[in-house]
Amino acid sequence: MTTADSLVNGGTASSGSRGIIDGFEGYVTPTAEEYSRVLATGMVVLDANVLLNLYRYTAGARDDLLAVMEKLSDRLWVPHRVLVEFWRNRDRVLRDPRDTGKTVRELEELRGRAARAFQTWVNRVSLPPDRASEVLGQLSAGFDAVMRYVDDFKDATAMDAARDTNTDVVLRSLRSILQGRVGHPLDEQALAAALVEAQRRLDEKIPPGYMDRKKEGAEGAGDYLVWEQVLREAETRRCDVLFVTGDVKEDWWREEGGERRGPRIELVEELRQRAGTRLFMVRPPQLLNYARGALAVTVRDRSVEDADKVDAFLSEAEPELANGGWDPDAVTYLLDRLAREAPRQAIVLLKAAQQGGYVSRSQVYELTHFPQERSLRGFTRPFNRIVQLMREEGVLPEEAVDVFWAVYNDESPSFGVAAGFQIHDDVLPLFLSRMRDRSPGGEDAD
Q1: Which residues, 6+ apart, have CB-to-CB distance to 240 below 8 Å?
Q2: 406 has which bridge partners?
Q3: HSE of 426 in the Cβ direction (CA atoms, 13 Å)?
Q4: 396, 323 in Cβ contact below 8 A?
Q5: For 278-305, what is each residue's pLDDT tens digit?
Q6: What distance in Å separates the CA atoms of residue 263 and residue 349, rounded to the nearest whole number?
Q7: Are 240 and 278 in contact (CB under 8 A)?
Q8: Cβ atoms < 10 Å from Cβ of 161
Q9: What's the distance, CA 40 to chain centroid?
Q10: Sign of the torsion formed by the C-alpha atoms of 104, 109, 110 and 114
Q11: H/E/C letters for each residue in 116-137?
Q12: Distance (Å, rounded) from C-alpha 300 to C-alpha 303?
């Protein structure tokens, strides 16, 4: 090993001395040789989005990524939490893996807006009705042609086959490749402690996971749970880690001038402290590129291009939704469903709204008349179920935030026990507005 190699790998040029890189490895750009080495000798960890992207890729890109995964052999490892997220999101991805349906719906909305704008102009200039009708027809025909073109990319037959887990070609391959390469779930005590730590990191903006603060409970802790399981496995193996993820949020990546330069320095240091090893991070297209040389596996240029296009598409920032994607009608729909199907939850939700969005654990018992020995685990399940149905029925956009979740903090009497429940800040004004509209009468506000 050369002196430079020793420095990059955290060694020293001579006993008792340090170099410019020692302790600052997170700032060093990895070389192609280092990526080859970690692919050959390290632990390669796949994030949930990498597995889900197998449904978004073309068949060629999918097969090439699966071939790379197969070639990695026992160096491949998947945290248990990754599989939780994979199975939880698989059906949603299968509904529209390439966002074809979503794009058609957006085009339909744009057609309506364009027609209304044109009609406003027609009224302003007093265009003759026959001429206005002719132009409006041309406008609509143009949208129809584009929407048909987009819709042609939807492979309904393949998606129907994938929905059946017995005929899904992706699952068939993953069953073989990941056999014996998936971590165990955290035990109850470790999970409870991890949830408390995830909440602390969220509150203090410590990576990873704080960018998921809009998600509910364990969902919001998902990134940290993945990371904690990676740290534990790295401690056991004592080898470098290559984390492959399509996630582009700032709580994973160190950005300079809008360019992702590598993993967050905090993550690099945490892995070094816990396991004494180095962290590398790449996106799926980079994995395919490096694997060609390092693993002597065939990866087509078109596969890398397709993976890069999917990666770029998914990396685009979603527009900020007003009120988290909720509107007064959606709030009314939720409250009406809760009143019929889960009246105790409806009472607690409205009490939380009265109090600025938060209701304590003790208040929940008081409002619901639950016996003290009854657990509140699953208390938000009716919210989750109804909100998911609202998304599926088109009442809510897919990206709408979850509205009500358990809060874990220092008030909790023990690990994993909710201290209270919180309404999302973006949606709270809509609940307050609805309660004002229904007063006096008071039944909704009591």
Answers
A1: 37, 38, 41, 42, 43, 277, 278, 279, 280
A2: 421
A3: 15
A4: no
A5: 999 999 999 999 998 888 889 999 999 9
A6: 39
A7: yes
A8: 13
A9: 29
A10: positive
A11: HHHHHHHHHHCCCHHHHHHHHH
A12: 5
Residue with tokens 């296009």: 309
Tell me 407's DSSP state: E
Amino acid at 329: D
Tokens representing 417?
Answer: 């026990």
The pTM assigned to this predicted structure is 0.61
* Token couple for 38: 């970690």
**Stretch (H or E) spanning 404:** strand 404-407
- Count of CB atoms situated within 10 Å of the CB of 371: 7
User: What pairing do the DSSP bridges indicate for beta strands 279-282 and 241-244?
Assistant: parallel
Are 289 and 301 spatial neighbours (Cβ–Cβ below 8 Å)? no
Q: Do 323 and 426 meet the contact criterion of CB atoms below 8 Å apart? A: yes
- Max mean pLDDT among 98-102, 143-147, 149-153, 358-362 falls in 358-362
Q: Helix-strand-coil percent breakdown of the chain, rounded to 5?
A: 60, 10, 35
Q: pLDDT, tens digit, for every residue of 118-139?
A: 778 777 777 788 887 888 888 7
- 226's enclosing H/E stretch is helix 222-237
Residues facing 340 on adjacent strands: none
**β strands within 86-204, DSSP E:** none
Whether the Cβ atoms of residue 215 and residue 425 lie closer than 8 Å to each other:
no
Q: Mind spelling out the 3-state secondary structure of 19-43?
A: CCCCCCHHHCCCCHHHHHHHHHHCE
d(Cα 10, Cα 36) in Å, to the nearest integer? 18
**Alpha-carbon span 443 to 446, nearest angstrom:** 5
Token code pair at residue 72? 């990695």
More confident residue, 135 or 446: 135
52 touches 89 (CB < 8 A): yes
Place of tokens 């192609």: 32
Give mean pLDDT, residues 305-321. 73
Instruction: Give dist(CA 195, CA 202) in Å, integer.
Output: 10
Task: Tell me the C-alpha distance between 73 and 40, whole Å.
Answer: 10
Q: How far is CA 122 from CA 6, 111, 130, in A?
A: 74, 16, 11
Number of Cβ within a 10 Å radius of residue 180: 6
Report CA 164 to chain centroid distance, whole Å: 24
Give me the pLDDT at residue 438, please: 64
Cβ contact 241:46 at 8 Å: no
Q: Report d(CA 20, CA 162) in Å as an integer.
A: 52
